[in-house]
Amino acid sequence: MGFDEMDVDTIWQNGEFVDWEDATTHVLTHGLHYGTGVFEGARAYNTEEGTAIFRWEEHLDRLYASGKPYEMEIPFTKEELSEATLELLRRQDLKSAYIRPIAYYGYDSLGVSPRDCPTDVAIACWPWGAYLGEEALENGIKVMVSSWRKHSSSQIPTNAKTTGLYVNSLLAGEEARRNGCAEAIVLNKEGNVAEGPGENIFLVRDGEIFTPGLSQSILDGITRDTVITLAREMGYTVHDQAVISRGELHTADELFFTGSAAEVTPIRQVDNVEIGSGSRGPVTEDLQTAFFDLVERRTDDHDEWFTYV
């Protein structure tokens, strides 16, 4: 669905609410040329208690942390960004939404150094269903291991959500889609499993859950942390610093992706190899049910994770 088809008309930009079509930036913006921006993706869910943003504080904390390696000072407080986001949801009467805050070096000079460039900040919200398709949540998706590798944290900080780094994600994801897959899995420079282009990955074997650790050049996903927490509360053994080889993907009992956009999405096939029974496995279904029960507030657990509009 294109933005022009959605009932959204306002963006918050540098302290002001502006019409969607007027939220523009200069063609010589530093972030456009060098990828010097940081961003977040969060979801607001329609619950019986009203619209609620899931783990908004953690997303904001990560936004500010992402700017630190680039010496980017965000010229608004977290409280100001929170109030802007809540007001944006109210103004557009969005009961559920995807939320995209972004901070980037703006227009001043086009040397590689951004020291004279301002930091521009914007927030947009729009309705967005299941990232990989509604049917994917139940039936699972077909993926492939990409020929593109994930960059190492010794090259570029992998735990910062930097705009320019998603070129790597684009290459991997589009390669997968050209080959008839919904998504990719990327390996790190050592050849072990890192993550998806925009998702963390989990493997289930003999009832235990494994996911790559931060040393494997992954993003420390907030949905990843949520699923680890829920799984342990449900009694599962979770290995959250796992090193997973490519071959282990094919012999897994179950695989699934997590992410703010992807939520909890089963993987039914990797490189034309059927995973488990070739459909959503019981552990994945168990965790997926717990996740959606949580975010849609069918349970009172972890109310501290929600910011109500």
UniProtKB/TrEMBL annotation:
InterPro entries assigned: Aminotrans_IV (IPR001544), Aminotransferase-like (IPR036038), B_amino_transI (IPR005785), BCAT-like_C (IPR043132), BCAT-like_N (IPR043131), BCAT_family (IPR033939), Class-IV_PLP-Dep_Aminotrnsfr (IPR050571)
Cofactor: pyridoxal 5'-phosphate
GO molecular-function term, one example from the UniProt record: branched-chain-amino-acid transaminase activity
Pathway where this protein functions: Amino-acid biosynthesis; L-valine biosynthesis; L-valine from pyruvate: step 4/4; Amino-acid biosynthesis; L-isoleucine biosynthesis; L-isoleucine from 2-oxobutanoate: step 4/4; Amino-acid biosynthesis; L-leucine biosynthesis; L-leucine from 3-methyl-2-oxobutanoate: step 4/4
SUPFAM superfamilies: D-aminoacid aminotransferase-like PLP-dependent enzymes (SSF56752)
EC number: 2.6.1.42
Catalysed reaction equations from the record: L-valine + 2-oxoglutarate = 3-methyl-2-oxobutanoate + L-glutamate; L-isoleucine + 2-oxoglutarate = (S)-3-methyl-2-oxopentanoate + L-glutamate; L-leucine + 2-oxoglutarate = 4-methyl-2-oxopentanoate + L-glutamate
Highest taxon listed in the record's lineage: Archaea
Keywords of the record: Amino-acid biosynthesis, Aminotransferase, Branched-chain amino acid biosynthesis, Pyridoxal phosphate, Transferase
GO terms under biological process: amino acid biosynthetic process; branched-chain amino acid biosynthetic process
Task performed by this protein: Acts on leucine, isoleucine and valine.
Family membership noted in the UniProt record: Belongs to the class-IV pyridoxal-phosphate-dependent aminotransferase family.
Protein name: Branched-chain-amino-acid aminotransferase
